[in-house]
Each structure stands twice: as structure tokens, then as C-alpha cells.
Predict the 3D structure of the following.
Amino acid sequence: MGDNATTLSRRRFLQAGAALGGAYLLPGLMNAAWAAGSDGPEQETVKVGFIPLTDCASIVMASVKGFDKKHGITIVPSKEASWAAVRDKLVSGELDAAHVLYGLIYGLELGIAGKQQAMANLMTLNNNGQAITLAMELTKQGVTDAASLKKLIAANAPGTFTFAHTFPTGTHAMWLYYWLAAAGIHPFNDVRTVVVPPPQMVMNMRIGNMSGYCVGEPWNQRAINDGIGFTAATSQSIWADHPEKILGTRSAWVDQNPNTARALVASVLEASRWIDASEANRRETASVLAGRAYLNTKVGYLTPRMLGEYDNGLGKKWHDDHGMHFFRDGEVNYPWLSDGMWFLTQHRRWGLLDSDPDYLAVATRINRLDIYRQAAAAAGNVAVPASTMRASTLMDGSQWDGSNPAAYAASFAIKR
């Protein structure tokens, strides 16, 4: 983005804060909780797991561009095979932190994504940029969108069609369920859903194991390039500027290493800002990510959607203003409590939680606003909102602002 785009982005961020009744504070105006010279990182090396997806970019670039060294640490990116592997290695301490699904961290905290473990969300890594891919074979039966998919499903026995996501409490499951339900398709009664690691999505669609999937990039673009699938919906069409991956870790690790946690977040914030600063930086990022150590794919599979240029595989092309973003003056990265609470409402909606939790208390416990504010000050020129909530309108017209989560969770006609 150029200077004008950056100015407009900041203006939108400030206006959003005013609309929610809270002004935005620049880090320079805040009283830092740590003192320069006495706040050295407890760890020099920080092992950070990632899944080979485009949205691991800020962690990778923090290491590649040396932003970590500026803050006194060395980030060691560790490629992992699945979200289950990330979960297990986070819990065991084999990983210090990870590029991870928002709902995975919340699920661990509540004991619905594995053995209960106190977890921490240090920052949001990106907004937008996921998609729902349908098999090209479905076009032979007249399917090009959600409405035509509903007709086909209704004409067949329940469970005839299989859809994949990446983790039971994760973001991709929630986007898939939301999109299906908005079309009148019950994601548990009308279709079959399975869990597949992101790098295995395209292969499984190619051999006919699923009719559709929800995943991050480049696996939606890859299906189009291979001629086996098309993009039926982007995640930003479900919720514009939604939270996606986060920088997650164990709560105990933060408590034991608060200065390291601050340095890690500051490093990734600086990388996020660098990526979003220009098209050239985004292209360079795509080139780095395509390498064998990271996504091990063709740069052409990454670059278009990294730049917001979309082709759905059926002839529709557009520039998406709500494509994947990594910074937007810190608006992307702030760990809004309402974002975490939204995932809890969907866990409740789909029966993953048997009763309503204390939504605000859980989000306040997990989302480490204290560490984020310190890191924003360390990174410099990162706007930090006074409000912990933000307001959004989703594809079905539902309004979400975190004010009444239990009522919101119960408000959907299709639920479990």
C-alpha cells in the first residue's frame, strides 16, 4: 500500500475506535510496564511452529528480515505437518509459540480441542484470505454457488457429500459451517464433515474423497491451477476483515518469559508492517514463502491472492479490498476480546460446548493485551485501541459486537 492507502487505513482505524466509544492511543502516549535496559529476553532463541500456509508470512519474514535480532531474540520457524501436531508440540513445550488457528487455542483452554491447558493469544497474525473450494465435478450437476449446492444436497440422501476442514474447533470449520448454514445446509445433518491437514486438501479432492473444503492459501488457488476445483466463497465474504491465525502459546510460557513474549510480538509486528507496506514487499514475501523451507510451491500459486487478485476458476476475476492483510496500522494485530468471544459463540452454536461459558472472562484470560501493548510500544508507531471490542456484520446480516454473546449464539436458526 502507498502513503495514501496507509493514511486512509489509519483514518478508518481511528473512526472505528470512535464509533465504539473509545479513542485510540499511540504507544508513545502509554505508560510502558517495562523499563528499557532491565527487560532483556529470558530466551535468546524462540522456536515458532507454522503450517505451510500463506498466512505464516509475518513469522517467516520476522526471521528472514532480521526483525527478531532487533529485539534481542532469534526466531526459529518450525514447519509442522498438521494442526494436531502444532497443538501437541505447543502443549508439550516442544514449540515455544506457533502460527495457529484462533479456535484451537480457545479449544485447548476449554478442554474441547485436547487435554485442557491454559493458553495465550499474543496477537492476531492476519485478517481474511481463506476460501471454500468446491470440486469442479460438481459443475456438471449445476453447482456454481451455495444456492445450487443446497439443491443438489437436498436431492440426495443425507451424508452423500463430504466436506473437509482442518481442525474441529478451528477457523476453517467455523467458516465452512457458517457458509453452509447461511445457505440452509446443516453441516452435521445434511453433509459429512472430515478433518484433513491443509497440505493434503488438493490431493484428497483430486482422488474424489471430498466435494468441498475450507482452507487457507495456497490450497484454494492450487485447486484452480490444477483444474480440480473452484472458489465458491472467500472467508472475507462471510465476515469482512475477520480474525484468522494468531500467535499462540501456553499461558505458563508467557508467565515464565514475559520479556521474550514481548520481543517476539514486537518482532512479528514489525514484519507485519513491512509486508503490508508495499506491493514489492508482498511479492518478495511470496517469493520467500514459496521456498522449500516454507511452502515448497510455485510462487505463482501465492502471488495473485497475496496481492488481492482473485480468479474463482469459473471465469470471475476481481480485486478484493478485503484480501489477506497483516497489519493495517495494527488494526489487524490487536487481540480484540470480541474476536475470541465470537469463536466461543460458534463452538456453543455447534454443540462443541455444552453450556455458555463466561465469554468475556475466557477471552480476557487468553488474549494477552498486556503483552501486546508493551510490544506495540517496543515496535513503535503501532496504534493501540482503548476499546477491547469491535463491531461487524456477517454475510447473513447478523450483527456481532461482543455485547450479548449467549443471545447471539442462540439466535441462529440452524444450530446443533
Notes: Residues 258-276 form the longest helix (19 residues).
